[in-house]
Design a protein that fits this description.
With 409 residues, the chain is mostly helical. The protein contains 20 helices and no strands.
Length: 409
């Protein structure tokens, strides 16, 4: 093994250990910083050159992700997510119905908008409304994160890993939804059923009247503009127009506004996630170039573990999503196995997303909800989340595997 290969292996290990831990011990360097530092070390050492670095970064994927973040930011800036959260909490329905509304709204929004932005915006107002009614926010927040993950599995633009998989495989938007949509809907039902069963006694607590909840302002024109833009984007996906071009057109139109400053929209874009993707692209491409992953895959195949099979993808995505995260595990698998067939890409997208519900660390949506809740004085412990997360994941995972094994293509 040459010094260059040894350095790549060390950097790769350091980066993905950091992805699993969330930071390097003793340092305030988060996952994004870790990915950047890994890429910098490889570039500065000469292991990867300028051309290799640029070639490693999948710019179309980053552009699509950026454009969808702009679209979601349009709704956030107009107060749409706050309005939805307040309306959910203000309904005169009983807690079980409020839970159902939370699951349905978060799941539907996450299917066409960036799920991380959806939960980021909805969490504080939902907490405020539920506390005003003397309801424990924790089951509703667990359902919010779980349904955002489950709903995002239904479309190729629902979350970052789906966007990457769709771009790499050239997957059709509507074909993707035909395969992944039914398991996503079942997963939403699983989220509701599990949370209700685990927390049903809490729902019996006496609540106050919904009139005590103040409804936030909503920019009707800006919201209507966002809805029209979303419908236009979905229509573009049905045409031969490249997805990158369609998303950029929509983003450009939304940035032209008399009410919302460009800075206001761009502030809501998750730049950290985009940079995280870039760093991981460079690190995983460098590892793939060493030939070590190919050797490992041949050894696995010789033992009967084909990387494209459900028997291999299921445990890899379940374990990977809840250690290094679903975005890093997808970036890694696509770099190591770049020629996965369409059926395996659908499975990778669906399973890596649903696996994110298992533990808090399984997805960014979970982490965002927990952190935003803590800022509002609501603590969702690891065990409290796992009491629902493990069950909802295993149930939805079992259905997804059965569905995929039945060959929905």
């Amino acid at each position: 093994m040459t010094w260059a290969t040894s350095l790549v292996v060390v950097v790769f290990a350091a980066v993905y250990v950091g992805m699993a831990l969330g930071r390097w011990p003793g340092l305030k360097v988060d996952r994004t910083g870790i990915a950047i530092l890994g890429a910098i070390v490889l570039y500065a050492s000469g292991v990867v050159g300028a051309h290799e670095t640029l070639d490693a970064i999948d710019f179309p994927t980053l552009i699509i992700l950026f454009g969808l973040m702009v679209l979601s930011a349009q709704f956030a800036a107009c107060g749409f997510y706050d309005w939805c959260s307040a309306r959910i909490a203000a309904t005169a329905a009983p807690p079980a119905a409020i839970l159902a509304l939370t699951v349905a709204v978060a799941g539907a929004l996450s299917a066409v908008l960036a799920n991380d932005v959806v939960v980021f915006a909805m969490t504080p107002m939902l907490i405020k409304g539920l506390q005003a009614r003397n309801l424990d926010p924790r089951p509703f927040l667990i359902a919010l994160a779980g349904s955002a993950n489950a709903g995002s599995a239904a479309t190729v633009i629902g979350n970052p890993q789906n966007i990457l998989i769709g771009q790499v495989g050239g997957l059709d938007f509507f074909a993707f939804s035909r395969v992944c949509g039914p398991p996503a809907v079942f997963a939403l039902a699983s989220v509701y059923a599990v949370v209700w069963l685990v927390w049903r006694r809490r729902f019996a607590c006496r609540q106050r009247q919904p009139e005590a909840i103040a409804r936030p302002p909503l920019d009707d024109f800006g919201t209507a503009k966002g809805i029209v833009a979303t419908l236009a984007l979905l229509a573009m996906f049905a045409t031969p127009l490249p997805h990158v071009t369609g998303v950029l057109i929509i983003a450009a139109v939304l940035l032209i506004s008399r009410r919302l400053a460009t800075r206001e929209i761009l502030t809501l874009v998750d730049w950290h996630l985009l940079v995280l993707f870039g760093g991981l692209f460079v690190v995983t491409a460098a590892l793939a170039a060493t030939g070590l992953p190919e050797t490992l895959l041949k050894a696995m195949a010789a033992e009967g573990f084909a990387p494209a099979s459900l028997a291999t993808l299921a445990p890899l995505t379940l374990a990977g999503s809840n250690t290094i995260g679903n975005v890093p595990i997808v970036v890694l698998l696509l770099a190591v196995v770049p020629d996965l067939p369409a059926a395996s890409l659908y499975a990778l997208a669906l399973l890596s997303t649903l696996a994110g519900n298992l533990l808090i660390v399984g997805s960014m949506a979970n982490i965002i909800v927990v952190e935003r809740a803590r800022q509002s004085g609501v603590v969702i412990g690891f065990g409290v989340h796992a009491a629902c997360g493990v069950a909802m994941t295993l149930v939805s995972f079992a259905f997804a595997l059965a569905w995929l094994a039945a060959d929905p293509l």
